[in-house]
Amino acid sequence: MAKRKRVYLEEMVGRVNANMILPYPPGVPLVMPGEMITEESRPVLEFLQMLCEIGAHYPGFETDIHGAYRQADGRYTVKVLKENTK
């Protein structure tokens, strides 16, 4: 099994995602395991960040994002594959 680590959501560009990231509602996966967030797919990342900000500013309107983990500072982390350092 590949080694994983957590990075902040905004640091995902250029990394391989380790878990499915699925905002609920609506419950549609946006990022699949093994998928790399690139500059071309940055709008997906920005959408996830927007959902996090809405929940922070408007209590009761939070979106549960499966695969993203809220930290004490309010930022979200996700699991990515560690880079191979041979």
UniProtKB/TrEMBL annotation:
PANTHER family in UniProt: BIODEGRADATIVE ARGININE DECARBOXYLASE, CONSTITUTIVE ORNITHINE DECARBOXYLASE
Broad enzyme group: lyase
Domain Orn/Lys/Arg decarboxylase C-terminal: 4-72
GO function terms (MF aspect): arginine decarboxylase activity; lysine decarboxylase activity; pyridoxal phosphate binding
Any matching Pfam family: OKR_DC_1_C
The protein, known as: Lysine decarboxylase
GO cellular component: cytosol
UniProt keywords, alphabetically: Lyase
GO terms, biological process: L-arginine catabolic process
Enzyme Commission code: 4.1.1.18
